[in-house]
Amino acid sequence: MRRRTWAAVSGALAVGLGVIGGELSAAALSPSVTPVSAVGSAVIDGLPPGVKDWAIAWFGTADKAVFLVTIAVLIALLALAAGVLEYRRRFAGRAVVAGFGAVGALAVASRPQSSLISFVAPVVAALVAVLVLDALVRALRAWQQGADGAATTDRSPARRRFLQGAGGTAVVVAATGAAATGVRSSQSTVTRQRSSITLPAPTEPAAPPRPEGSFVPEGAELEIPGISELVTDADDFYRIDTALVVPVVDPAGWTLRVTGLVDREVEITFDELLALPLIERHVTLACVSNTVGGGLTGTARWLGWPVRELLARAGVRPEADMVLSRSVDGFTAGTPLEALTDSRDALIAVGMNGEPLPVEHGFPVRLVVPGLYGFVSATKWVSELQVTRFADEKAYWSTRGWSERGPVKTSSRVDVPRPNADVPAGDVVVAGVAWAQHRGVEAVEVRVDGGPWQRAVLATAISVDTWCHYSATLALAAGSHTVQSRAVDREGDVQSDADVAPAPDGAEGLHTVTFTVT
Ligand SMILES: Nc1nc2c(c(=O)[nH]1)N[C@H]1C(S)=C(S)[C@@H](COP(=O)(O)O)O[C@H]1N2
Ligand SMILES: [Mo]
Q: Whose CA is nearest to atom 7 of ligand 1?
């Protein structure tokens, strides 16, 4: 192999070992801020508005995986370049690698959950990478300088020394890399803490219990193959957040503080929260980035304590009109005060579908506010409610081009038939879900091939805060057809047929599905 290739390999090995060393020390010292995740999160926070929209549109909930692979490829390219630079000029590659370390440290500094100890990891990473790069490139140079002399052959000691050094480093990279992956999964401390929690029974159930053990009212579920589950499994529930690495929050150390425009600051612990009278409610969450017909919406049965009760304990000052909820990782959402204090049951939620919140969905505690998109209300891993005014504070997405207010728009989706499906001739069933959170769905209509709107059968709603099943049976001739649906809410507003993109306050349009009757 050419010497330059070996120099590049040296760079990759040195940086690889440095990154792993940094991640391992972070796992031991400050698991919620590792250098790589800090750089990733800092990049995510700094991305221009619209990129998130684009990433979600292209990769959906796989956006994080795609992003991590992109980061890995970029680091690898820079590492290869650092090796070649160091070989050409002493210190040049090491300077690049030290620069990496500095970027890592700056990124760590930008993370709200970092503390002094979090800076150990980027320093370890940079030191390891600089030392290994220096040692390998020295050995490579010794080999090359030997090659200029007469005595070197394939069995030259200098060549052997370099290859042994590089091989040894590669073995250590593989071994510690495996160890680092193991450590990742042993961040199952939080998983263990989660499984040791016993949630109290709600003092008010989500619905009168039914003999079959179902938690939804009679007549709410239509038994149609292919229709969305009325209550979404936690495993199937969409996940959207800016957290590259899921925040690790120990419930024993968690508190929720109410600050800002209040008579007195209050703080509650997880145990205190569980001891309060908790209620259970079905609520449909929706992401403002959801496109027409998209999957970034779901319904769950949430267990929690009404936010208004906690706010009442603190005593909200009359001039306040917004609550800025903050998560442990610095994400913020700005929710109109009235949505948290009116008769709707905005919850400080601890349970999802009868279990403690899944880690990805905010364990141990998140907010759930009926009627509002997640970006202005549904703060996961929540740690503070700052009572304030829209005029004084801007939330995470509102500083990035998205709207300040985010009421969910009246919408519907066609689940059946699937796009491009072949449907046997005869009665064709069109079915799906419709939602208009906190206003309630009044009716759903469907139309075929742009024809007249026809009333669909609307299932019993769980509540005004959830989506509802609908279906219609149509006699259609053989051939290709398109079907569309539209919802009408109980305020009389009809789902918009305008073609509006998600930014800045939610998509509009009619979901259109084309299929063939055979
Ligand atoms: N801490 C935190 N909470 C967050 C977010 C986030 O990025 N960080 N994203 C919000 C957005 S945009 C949505 S749509 C919902 C999604 O909740 P889910 O992932 O449980 O479906 O969480 C909200 N809560
Ligand atoms: Mo969202």
A: 241
